[in-house]
Specification:
184 residues; 10 helices; Arc Repressor Mutant, subunit A; three-stranded antiparallel β-sheet
Length: 184
């Protein structure tokens, strides 16, 4: 859904009445969603039905809910402009890769704030095996400043140690896994 729809959704207060949260978050059970399924949703109040109609007008024709295993209270509403039969075929073709793709997307959405250039540089020198004093010398800063950059990077990455911070930064593509370019 585009930014215009999201703005409309928020302006109408639809987040407070969206039936998805009440009806589509049952663990182990996927529910059909979208305007194509509105006939089966006559139990919803008129405002909720209008929300679904308007979403359909904005392009959300058919979809389904999906809760990822091991993530209670987190559900995705996978919407499309496809007819229900076409969406069912696509879903069948995706099979087990759909939950994996959603997990990766969730990780991306939950990504920490970006590292500053100096925080990334400190971590890249750390990947080279340099100690704090050596990093400080290479960067022409004090060892205390190196430690401040490392502490800030650890905080942003949710890491307890500098090694954990380096691993998280590499896994998230925030620093190169082999440290500084042009090493020799």
């Amino acid at each position: 859904m585009g930014h215009d729809w999201v703005a409309h959704y928020m302006a109408q207060g639809y987040a407070r009445i969206d039936p998805f949260y009440e009806h589509c978050m049952t663990p182990g059970r996927s529910m059909p969603t979208g305007a194509a399924h509105l006939a089966a949703l006559r139990h919803l109040d008129p405002r909720q039905q209008r929300l679904i109609e308007e979403a359909g007008e904005a392009g959300f024709h058919s979809g389904f809910s999906l809760m990822l295993p091991g993530q209670p209270g987190v559900a995705w509403n996978i919407g499309s402009g496809l007819q229900p039969e076409a969406l069912a075929r696509l879903r069948l073709a995706l099979g087990e890769s759909l939950p994996l793709a959603l997990r990766l997307l969730q990780m991306r959405l939950d990504a920490p704030p970006p590292l500053t250039a100096r925080e990334a540089e400190v971590l890249e020198w750390l990947a080279e095996g340099l100690r704090t004093k050596e990093i400080a010398h290479r960067m022409a800063i004090t060892p205390v400043t190196v430690e401040l950059h490392l502490r800030s990077a650890r905080t942003k990455l949710g890491a307890r140690t500098r090694d954990q911070a380096l691993l998280q930064a590499v896994l998230r593509g925030m620093v190169r896994p082999y440290g500084r370019p042009g090493r020799g």
